[in-house]
Amino acid sequence: MSEPLAQYLTSEFWHAFTVLLRISAFVSVMPAFGERTVPTRVKMGIAIAFTAIVAPALGERFEPVNFAAFARLAMTEIVVGLVLGIMVRLFVLGLQTAGSIAAQATSLSQILGGAAVEPVPAMGFLLVMAGLTLAVMTGLHVRAAEYAILSYQLFPAGTLPNASDLTRWGVGQIATVFALAFSLAAPFVIASLIYNLAMGAINRAMPQLMVAFVGAPVITFGGLFILFAATPLLLTIWVDAVNDFLMNPLGGPR
């Protein structure tokens, strides 16, 4: 760079700063570390910590030769970082979708619906909080650092992702996440189907019985019991899916 300040900045600085651009965008939308409840200063500290891990692991050095090259590099790195973070963030949306499906199926969708930052049913809020906690405890930060290092092989610095390839990757990831969400909510949907069939049969056999007064406590208790019994297994499946994606981002739907 031709500016007077550039003579005091070494190649190591530009390399670290370029990595920080991608990492900061990635952390801003990353699950757990990029939540709205996390203060901006904490997010910046996390981004710097990830940069200190990722930058030395890269063999290539990034040093713009002029302001135009730096502007292009900054734009592409921020875009790539956001793409990387959004792809992982989709798993959180999938967990929220699973909670919403489960809550609707078991008539629990209106309890504490606005307790979270995002308006989701209480069942979805509990699943998301438990899932993020379990992910962090099982090494989400390690997988995220590996994912960031691998991203430079998928998207070299200074190069915008190909639109058609990015579209296919995004559509495949969305399909994977929705399939995972429905799979996680399947026990609640099956229980709701059995409940409705049973209530329909009882109503036909005894029309004078107010089946709603009998069935409402049953489906509520059943939904809470399934949540209590199945949550450990459901969260384990979800965390495994997140780790599989971070280790093999282009693996596609299973």
How would you characterize the overall build of this protein?
- The chain is built from seven helices and no strands.
- The chain is mostly helical and 254 residues long.
- The chain has one domain.
- It is elongated, with a radius of gyration of 23 Å.
- It comes from Falsiruegeria mediterranea M17.
- One of its GO terms (biological process) is protein targeting.
- Its main location: membrane.
- It is found in: Cell membrane.
Provide a compact summary of the structure.
With 254 residues, the protein is mainly alpha-helical. It has seven helices and no strands.
Q: How are the SSEs placed, and which strands pair?
A:
Blueprint: H1 11-29, H2 40-57, H3 67-105, H4 122-137, H5 140-154, H6 163-205, H7 211-247
Helix pairs in contact: 1-2, 1-3, 2-5, 3-4, 3-6, 3-7, 4-7, 6-7
| Percent in helix | over 70%
Whole-number tally of structural domains: 1
In round numbers, the mean pLDDT is 84
SSE order, one letter for each helix or strand: HHHHHHH
Which class do the helix and strand fractions yield? mainly alpha
**Got a strand count?**
0
By DSSP (H or I, 4+ residues per run), the number of helices equals 7
Stretches where pLDDT falls below 50 for ≥5 residues? 111-117
- Strand % is under 5%
